[in-house]
Amino acid sequence: MFRPGKTNLKKMARGATALAGSHFEHPGSHTMAVLLALGLIVSLVVASCQLPNRTRSMIGPSPSTWEASGVWMGAEPEIRVRIAKPTKELVVGGPRLVLAREASGRVRIFRTPVLIGASAGSVVLTETGGEPVTIAGHVELESGDPRPSTRPRPGTLEAYADAPTIAVQGVEYAGAVRITTEADGVQAINYIDLEPYVAAVASRELYPSWSLAAYEAQTIAARSYALQSMSLPKFRDRAWDVESSTVDQAYPGHTNHQRSIQAVINTRGRVVAYRGKILRTYYSSTSGGRSGSAADTWPTGPGFEYNLLAPIQAHNVIHASEASRFHRWEVVRTTDDVTKRLRAWGERAGHSLKNARAVTNISVHRLNRADRPSTYRVGERNGVSHTLSAEQLRIALNQDVQGLPDATGDRRVRSGDFEVTAAGTRLVIRGRGFGHGVGMCQFSAQALSKRGWTADDILKNFYPGASIELAY
Fold first, then answer.
1. Computed over its alpha carbons, how large is the radius of gyration of the chain?
2. How far apart are CA 429 and CA 421, in angstroms?
């Protein structure tokens, strides 16, 4: 979001009175700009009293702090969340007015809705009934509606819930949204303080009625995952830190869910750490009673060494996921269906399954230390066999193939922990859990919280050997 450093606040306050002039422009309305200027002067003064001076230099250009200790002491950072991958058009709405800051610092005012596209590497913004405005480079958008003179006290439920927002593709986001041009069009990246981001993630990851302790465990895990992602050298030159999808963590935009917000307030700055570094705290819905291992699920080579850390490998920990409807499940597929999906996945992944002709059986090849399958062997009628990881097989069995029904709902293979029985031309897949099973099981976290476990108890159970530390 737009947060001027303290040295620039006086200049911006003086300059705000000139919004109707050359610095702030609206394609057709200067009267509204003058009214907005008065509101912005108040907002800037309030901001100078309430908000610390936070910059990404704490994370981006100074990685040695992270790499030396990992548990970083400092102010709350901003996180950059990609909320829209490159697309031809975006629609921005929400407030009546949107501020658009150019890379040069010039600010324009647009009435919503605003259609955003790209042309020759520039961002093009068009109001309803207005002329297109072309801006070179990136554009940062923020709510331009005048804000009340009295604002909630920072760190309160009201301060989180009542944050100004703008809508991108119908989804509301607090903070600022940066629009950049790519080869395929425009993409959108939400710049938001880490704590409200974590609250929003928690609101999507858990059921609204779940206990405060489960939410506190989830917020600590989500914060740890985010901070660890922000520290990775391989992503340092990227325009965003995390995706808004389950590729990283499900982020629904702004939330006013009080339990999520209260959990963030209660756990502010707390992270899961191991040997002085913030842990990549994987978590999933339902363990089914057995833990997965990060080293069996994701890369471990250069740049991915964090997947070898002990707390996120398979352990015999306490599980309690029986309340989940996916604690146990069953899917029946024809051998032809399985063969076609595995062959299609093999073609995409460059795996030997691309040559599969007639799959007849699938068996467990190796178990991890918690007795959860880590690799499987896929056998064909001609005696040829293929070996692949449990997570690869889960993805392969859910591969979309033209002419076959989508692997959704009860047809979906929910985890990589299952046994397969051949029944004529059908394969009966009986499985456990939902997700990869690495780290915290969310249904178990809720069940354990109802037994009186605290967030710390839950996290130490699912990440054995790790500790809970204060990062800021």
1. 25
2. 7
